[in-house]
């Protein structure tokens, strides 16, 4: 079994893909499903998201950390954790995470959303599904590698290696090195470039929330039957 980590999305995935955008899209996605959302609809653009508006639909997304005009919510996991979404579907579009999911879905057989908050559950689910390869795909920030995503990839890789034998690529080795040489998750996320930015605009609570490790058993899984062009449907797997 192969274990690979892409520090930025590259495409050409053949088996299981774990998409990671710790700050904040995949962390928030997990929280929406925890809080009762029936499904997550990840769109390619904000315009596609706006076109989904209707009864039982909540629009959530951000650009530059701020809520998109016309959307109901931003991309805050801490905010999502205070609400309930029973009977609703959440339509998401974010700067980095939803784009990474679309890249993964173009060729991946099974696409899962992973964060620190659901790391153990996501790793177990990936291992159960995989037949050839597990690819951990870091979303990064504006086309640049993000420390927080690489760290999370290392946490996922550690869990996976504890479950069996894998042949690892250099990306996975880099992620493992970052994980093993770093401090606690809260320090890593707060000290990352994007963590510093979010703290600077008053979103420190989101960074702290995202630093929790394996507190959730919810794993968003792409529903192939629900994929329609520029919309990807994820459900709790």
From TrEMBL:
Entries under Gene3D superfamilies matching the protein: ComB-like (3.90.1560.10)
Single GO term (MF): sulfopyruvate decarboxylase activity
Cofactor requirements of the protein: Mg(2+)
InterPro entries: ComB-like, ComB-like_sf
Enzyme class at the top of the EC tree: hydrolase
Catalytic activities: (2R)-O-phospho-3-sulfolactate + H2O = (2R)-3-sulfolactate + phosphate
Enzyme Commission number, as recorded: 3.1.3.71
Pfam families assigned to the protein according to its UniProt record, in alphabetical order: 2-ph_phosp
UniProt KW keywords: Hydrolase, Magnesium
Family: Belongs to the ComB family.
Protein name, UniProt field: Probable 2-phosphosulfolactate phosphatase
């Amino acid at each position: 079994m192969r274990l690979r980590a892409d520090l930025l999305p590259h495409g050409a995935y053949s088996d299981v893909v774990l998409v990671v955008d710790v700050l904040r899209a995949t962390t928030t996605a997990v929280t929406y499903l925890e809080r009762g959302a029936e499904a997550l609809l990840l769109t390619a653009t904000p315009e596609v998201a706006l076109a989904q508006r209707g009864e039982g639909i909540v629009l959530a997304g951000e650009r530059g950390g701020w809520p998109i005009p016309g959307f109901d919510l931003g991309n805050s996991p801490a905010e999502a954790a205070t609400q309930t979404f029973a009977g609703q579907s959440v339509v998401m579009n974010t700067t980095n995470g939803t784009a990474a999911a679309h890249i993964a879905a173009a060729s991946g057989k099974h696409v899962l959303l992973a964060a620190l908050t659901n790391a153990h559950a996501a790793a177990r689910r990936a291992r159960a599904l995989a037949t050839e390869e597990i690819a951990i795909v870091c979303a990064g920030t504006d086309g640049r590698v993000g420390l927080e995503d690489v760290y999370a990839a290392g946490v996922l890789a550690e869990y996976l290696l504890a479950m069996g034998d894998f042949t690892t690529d250099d990306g996975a080795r880099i992620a493992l090195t970052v994980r093993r040489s770093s401090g606690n998750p809260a320090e890593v996320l707060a000290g990352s470039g994007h963590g510093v930015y979010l703290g600077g605009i008053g979103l420190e609570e989101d960074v702290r929330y995202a630093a929790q490790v394996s507190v959730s058993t919810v794993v968003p899984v792409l529903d192939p039957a629900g994929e329609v062009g520029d919309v990807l449907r994820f459900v709790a797997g």
